[in-house]
Known about the structure:
Blueprint: E1 5-6, H1 7-14, H2 18-26, E2 34-35, E3 41-43, H3 45-57, H4 64-78, H5 84-123
Helix pairs in contact: 4-5
Amino acid sequence: MAERLQIGEVSARTELSIKTIRHYDDVGLVTPSARSAGGFRLYTEDDVERLLTIRRMKPLGFTLDEMRDLLAALDTLAGTDATTAQRDQAAAHVADCHSRAERACADLARQLTYAHELTDRLARYR
Length: 126
């Protein structure tokens, strides 16, 4: 049986707040795989990976709906019951998101270079 993690453990592993994880559950992005007898959310490694994917998308400017669409495409590609057309559509969507993520990374790298240049310039006046 797969290990089940409580929300506090998931929060520590993903560096997401418990409030944020609950919000992602409420909006349907990551539903815990199980509940304890007491009703506590229990997460699997797959759930943690899903949360990490979301955490990586957020600083790149993806909206909740865009995150949901990408996760659905990834689910389609990971599953075995999709038609060829569904898999092709999912692969195209993942490719589009990949291109967008690459552009966002380039923008962030440029901004980081500017930030380093500014801190170097200001350090001369210390």
